[in-house]
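ingest -> validate -> predict -> emit
validate: passed (alphabet ok, no gaps, 211 aa)
predict: started
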Amino acid sequence: MRFIHHLPLAKKIRALTMLTAGIALVVAGTVLIGFESYSFYHTRIETLKAVAGIVGSNSSAAIVFHDADSAKEILSSFSAKASITAASLYAADGDVLAIYVRDNANKFHAPAAAPEGYGYSSGHIRMFHSIRYNGETIGTLYLESDISELYDRLEQYGSVLCVVLLAALLTASIISARLQDAITRPIRDLAWTAKMISVDRNYSIRAKKES
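emit:
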């Protein structure tokens, strides 16, 4: 930003106005994108918990009787939720009873059963849900959800932010160009007065009073 110090006063005011407007918009956009990402992640986790609770309850009989066909049929209901890319159902001993894989996720390998919890890695939210019956843990449900929807939203927000930023900078430039005379003119007049007094030794010259 050192180049600003070498600009004439009028251009310096315009540059500082545009710089301030640009920084303010970038900060606001960053905060908005951060909040949207957090909100999306939190909402997706709560949705997965609700889905896991329902599917887990419906899977109790299949787990108890080790009915793989029923388990596969239950997991096939995830085909109605495009965000869930893969799922697997485990018995109490960790054996895989059934696997669901969305069409474009055919490289999925069921991970080892783990305690209840969730996390994020490789562009996916991964969740383990413990299935309980009569107070005992009888199995585990694993869900894997992608966040491509979030990427689409952020791409849209980024495009909108760029357009708004360019429009704001253009507006700030036009406004500062029209209003900067109110600042620079009194300074120019004062500088001219000081110069006349210094050069001509004419101490009768007075600076014009501005509001």
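The chain has six helices and five strands.
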